[in-house]
Each structure stands twice: as C-alpha cells, then as structure tokens.
C-alpha cells in the first residue's frame, strides 16, 4: 500500500491524499490550494498520479480546499466515482458552481469551467450516511463518521489490506450549536490528522459569544458598522444562530443584519433542509418555529443592486459577507468603506491563512490594498477564535490517542502548528511524521 501526500502537506489547503492498494487507486479529497499566489500556482501543477487511473474519491466535506480540484480531475480524465455524505453532495454543488464562476471570471487562468463542473457533479454517484459502509471493491471498504466540522462533514475510516486507516479530514470543535461534537475514531494502524490549530487552545464558545456581543455594543455606541467576513458554510449559519439568540434574549439591540453573500444564502437554504441533523437544542428551536435563518432583523441581499443599497454611513448595521479570508467577494466593498472609519469594526470569526487580506488586517497592517486602492485601517479589529470549526490542540491530542495509531501523519497545518502538535503527540509516545508535498510512503 502506498500513500502519496498530493496536497495539504506543510500547508492548510489543497487536501488530497492518493492511496494505491492492490490494483485500486483512490483519493481522499481533491482540494484547492488557497492563500499566497505561489501556493495557488500548485493548482496548476500536474497531479502526482494519473487521474484516469483513480477509481474513487472519498470526499470528507464541502469546503473548497477539500473538493475544489475535482472538476480539474474530471477534466483530466477521472472516470471513477465520488463518495460522500448526503448533505455534502448538496453543498458540493453550490461550492463547485461558485468556484467555476470565479474561475471563468479569471479568464485565461481558469482551472475549469461551469461545464466541467457539471460533468464533475455527475461523478458524485455514491451518497452514504455516517457509519454506513461503502464497498470499494477487492474487499476494500470505507465509512464516514461525524467529524463535527460542518454540515455533512465526515472523517474517513478506510479498511484495506487488513489495515485500518483514518483520515481526519477537518475535525470540528466541541460545543457548537449546529453540528454535533466530533465522533471518536476507531483504533487505527495509520492516522492522517489535520493540524490547523495544532498549536492553539480555543477559548470556550460562551466567551466568544460574549466577545461578539461586546464588539456589537461598542461599535453601535460609536455609531459604526460591524463587518463580519464569514465563510459561507457553517460559520455564517452559526453567526446567524448566535445573533438570533442574542436578540431574543435582548442582549443586543434591534438592528439591521445583512447577509450579503449569494453563496452563503444558498448554503443557508441547504441547512434549512437538514435541520433534523442539528444538535437537539437547535432542533428544538426549529420545531418551535423559531427560525434563526428567517427573523425580522435579517435581510438577505441576493442581488448586486440590493447589496449596493446597504447604507454604510449611518452605522448600526451588522454586515456578514464573504469571502471568509477577504480574498474576494462582497466583503471587499464593505471593508473599503468601513476600514477607514474608527467607529466601525471588523470582526474575524474564522481562520485567516497566511497570505490573505484577512490575515494582513488581523496582523495589524496600518493600510491595505483593496481592489487597486490603498485603504487605511482605522476601524477596530476583533478576533474571535472560539467559534472556530476546527479542533484545537487538546481535542486533536485526545482524538489521536483514541485512534492509538502505529503511525501518525500530520497534515493541513502551517509550520508552527505542525511542529507543536508533532511534539505533543510524540510526547504521548506516538510515531509522528510531517510529510512533504508529493512525498510517498509505503504502509
Ligand atoms: Zn473544512
């Protein structure tokens, strides 16, 4: 059995692991590299395998850094099948179509077209529930377990050649309102583990909610706006859920909340289909017809025209817009208007990768470049980390110890996180390796 780290090796994006076992070839994820331009160049590099020979793609979840290169894979000859959970299939549809739209806008540099994406979506032929075995031929089987990361996310338990391999995909945080806590992995021979927050300990979620409330109250007192750059999937719905609760409990005043992201709006429509998969408190809320995705303060600004009508001078608005790391999308307009205003705030509620505008602002830049113009940063910058959809170091360590593997490969992290988690796991007696990009190991 041979495992090649085709992506997310030494970086947090581009998840893709290629496994050859017997006569079969399969991938776990086929994601896009995001962040620095030289990292994004990797999206154009040849795959370290022949896409025509790949039989299966096991897709852990619907984030672009896990599925964004599937249309390219199909374009280069992949004729196998994609296996994922039922919600992931729905999410993949909107994420890939949106990615194709952005690609097409970039013209010459497009990785694929909308047409390629539709062909790729035809390969999504096997949908499973958590715990359900998917036979992959030659006695190999896989199943997904709840990763607690976003709606539909699963970590992969793969059984091949008498060995159990576990691929964490992205592993979730605990105590989240709209996803269950991550399930524990089975005993595994090999563990491929994400490390996004391998060097961090998250603050409790209640503290994060309180910090968000403080940011809103302070900003409104100064007559500013609160800009929340948000990932379209999960984080946006979670922020809406928290805002709805704060408002119902009269902890924030009546205000205008805009969801200014077509992608996040489509994602929210998908979440509405799966409310029965939420943890019990959220399920109960929906049963009582209290709908955090549809309440009187909330406006969806689907069209560009509606987006432009969002007033920015008078303050008192909460604007949630993508992209989550400020690398594009409507949030750029809101940042351009609000960053120079000391009365406004930008509240970061998600991971900001090195090389992104979000990270630059978070790291304290006094001015930034947005759509060709230099914008001074005078707004107050807030960082709320406890809402993260990723496990922190204690959760990752606890989880890895449950799998009790003979070998751990740490992926999907920046260098400091990989080093810290590696040392911690080694301290618990585990054999840890941090693979290089395109490295192959025999198992
Ligand atoms: Zn993810």
Task: Describe this structure as you would to a colleague.
The chain is of the alpha/beta class and 443 residues long. It folds into two domains: 2-200 and 389-442, 4-Layer Sandwich (Metallo-beta-lactamase, Chain A); 205-383, Rossmann fold (3-Layer(aba) Sandwich). Helices cover 31% and strands 22% of the residues. It has 14 helices and 22 strands. It has helices spanning 37-40, 64-67, 70-75, 86-105, 114-122, 205-221, 235-248, 262-273, 280-287, 304-308, 331-338, 357-362, 393-403, 415-427; strands at 2-7, 16-21, 24-28, 56-58, 81-85, 126-128, 134-137, 140-146, 154-160, 163-167, 190-194, 226-229, 256-259, 298-300, 317-321, 345-348, 367-370, 373-376, 380-383, 407-411, 432-433, 440-442. The chain has a seven-stranded mixed beta sheet with strand order 6-5-4-3-2-1-22. Helix 4 packs antiparallel against helix 5 (114-122) and helix 4 (86-105) packs antiparallel against helix 8 (262-273). The mean pLDDT is 95. The chain binds zinc ion. Zinc ion (ZN) is lined by residues 61, 63, 66, 149, 170. The site of zinc ion has 5 residues, from loops.
């Amino acid at each position: 059995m041979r495992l090649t780290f085709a992506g997310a090796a030494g970086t947090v994006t581009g998840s893709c692991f290629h496994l050859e076992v017997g006569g079969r070839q399969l991938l776990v994820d086929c994601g896009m590299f995001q962040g620095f331009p030289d990292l994004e160049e990797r999206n154009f590099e040849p795959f370290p395998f022949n896409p025509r020979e790949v039989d299966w793609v096991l897709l852990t979840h619907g984030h672009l850094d896990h599925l964004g290169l599937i249309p390219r894979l199909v374009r280069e000859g992949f004729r196998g099948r994609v296996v994922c959970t039922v919600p992931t299939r729905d999410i993949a549809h909107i994420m890939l179509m949106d990615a194709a739209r952005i690609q097409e806008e970039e013209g010459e540099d497009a990785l694929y077209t909308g047409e390629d994406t539709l062909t790729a979506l035809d390969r999504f032929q096997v949908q499973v529930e958590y715990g359900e075995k998917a036979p992959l031929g030659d006695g190999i089987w896989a199943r997904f377990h709840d990763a607690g990361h976003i709606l539909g996310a699963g970590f992969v338990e793969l059984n091949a050649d008498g060995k159990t391999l576990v691929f964490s995909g992205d592993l979730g945080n605990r105590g989240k309102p709209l996803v269950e806590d991550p399930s524990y992995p089975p005993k595994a021979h090999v563990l491929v583990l994400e490390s996004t927050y391998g060097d961090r300990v998250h603050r409790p979620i209640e503290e994060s909610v309180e910090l968000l409330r403080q940011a809103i109250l302070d900003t409104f007192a100064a007559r500013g706006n609160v800009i929340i750059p948000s990932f379209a999937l999960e984080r946006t719905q979670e922020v809406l859920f928290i805002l709805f609760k704060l408002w119902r409990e009269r902890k924030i005043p009546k205000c205008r909340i805009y969801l200014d992201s077509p992608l996040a709006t489509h994602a929210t429509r998908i979440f509405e289909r799966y409310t029965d998969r939420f943890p019990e408190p959220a399920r109960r809320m929906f049963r009582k017809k209290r709908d955090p995705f549809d309440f009187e303060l909330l406006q969806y600004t689907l069209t560009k025209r509606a987006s432009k009508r969002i007033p920015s001078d008078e303050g008192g608005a909460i604007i949630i817009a993508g992209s989550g790391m400020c690398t594009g999308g409507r949030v750029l307009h809101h940042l351009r208007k609000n960053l120079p205003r000391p009365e406004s705030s930008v509240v970061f509620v998600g991971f900001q990768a090195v090389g992104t505008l979000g990270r630059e602002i978070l790291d304290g830049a006094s001015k930034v470049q947005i759509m060709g113009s230099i914008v001074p940063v005078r707004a107050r910058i807030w960082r709320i980390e406890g809402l993260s959809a990723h496990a922190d170091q204690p959760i990752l360590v606890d989880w890895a110890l449950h799998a009790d593997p003979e070998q751990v490969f740490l992926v999907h992290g920046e260098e400091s996180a990989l080093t810290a988690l590696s040392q911690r796991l080694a301290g618990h007696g585990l054999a840890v390796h941090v693979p290089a990009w395109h490295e192959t190991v025999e198992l």
